[in-house]
Structures are given as C-alpha cells and as structure tokens.
Amino acid sequence: MYLLTTHHLPPTTHHLSPLDFIRPPAIIHLLNSNSEYKVMPNKKLNSDQARELKVLEALQQQPELRQVDLASRLGLAAGTANWLIKRLISKGYVKAKRIGQWRWRYLLTPEGFAAKALLTQRYLQESMQIYRETRHKAQRLINELRDRGCTQVYIEGDPTNDLVDVCRLTCLEQGIKIVHGEANELPELRVDGREVAIDWPREKAHV
Asked: Which label site among 38, 128, 142, 178 has the fewest CB atoms less than 10 Å from its CB?
C-alpha cells in the first residue's frame, strides 16, 4: 500500500499535481492497481474544498504570506482570499497572530493539518481515477496504432496538462517511440483537456 502523507507534498504552486511527487514507475504501478491505492471513500472535492486545500498548503509553506500575495499565487480575488482565510480560522484550521501593523502569521492547527491531509487524499484519489481512465483510452489508441503498423507517435497537448504525461508514460510502457517536434508524416496523439484522440497524417493534411 502507498502511504502518501502531507510531508511528501511539494511547495504549493499554481498547478498542484500528484505527478509532482510520485515518480513515473510508481505512477504506472498505481495506474495498473485496482486494489493497492486505497485512501478514502470515493468522495470528490467541491470547489470550496479544493480552494481550501490550496490555501492550507500555501500557508503551511509560508505562514507570513500576505493575503494579496496569496490571492495572486492562487489566481483569486483579494476578497476571496480574505474570505477563505476567515473561513479556515472559523473552522479552527488556522490561527492568526499579528506580527506587525499590517502583517499576520497564519499557523495551521492540528485540526488544520488533519483537514489538509484528508483533502489531499481525496484529491489524489479523484486524480488517479482520471489518470486511470485516460490511460485506458491511450492503451486502446496505441493498440490501434499497432494494428496499422505504427511504432512512433507525436504527442500534441498543453505541457501543463498532467494527462499529457500519462499518455507519454503509457506510450513508453507499451514500447511506442515518442517523436519530439512536429512530424506531419506520423500519427498524432492529441490530448485536449480530458479528451484523447489520434489524428492520422492524411486527416491532419486536411485540417
């Protein structure tokens, strides 16, 4: 069983991702497993919980982070950042201590650490389900490539999209060579959001 605790998490960034702290071999193992990755009942995070997780992670890394900087880091309005901090304080997850006329230090309480760990587990579980579904799609498309005698593919997609990495790892696992740089004569494995598809060379020529 994989035990993923809060001290394994990287510093908060704009793009929180399980792939940031699980190495590729472990990703493939988790994607293959139907039983070992057991953390919580399958309950998805709502939008408020997802934002609370980001705020808790940010304050753990930088307790003296100004609200305006927190808002900028997470892409939130300043008023929303203020509301989220007040909400976490009211829940007993964060304690605020004044350290200057306009500065505060925000410390996670034991309840805050526990809530952060719970939210992180739910986020990981939801993400791994999406990754598994994407991997199954990629495997079906790779089988189609092989049926047509293809051994190489070009991957097109937003590099910040984790599902691009899932498709890349699946290709490598299946022995399909990934060609870097656009190659019009090769099939293109295209990742658009959560959708994965193949564009064949003849089809691309007519786009």
From this structure: 38
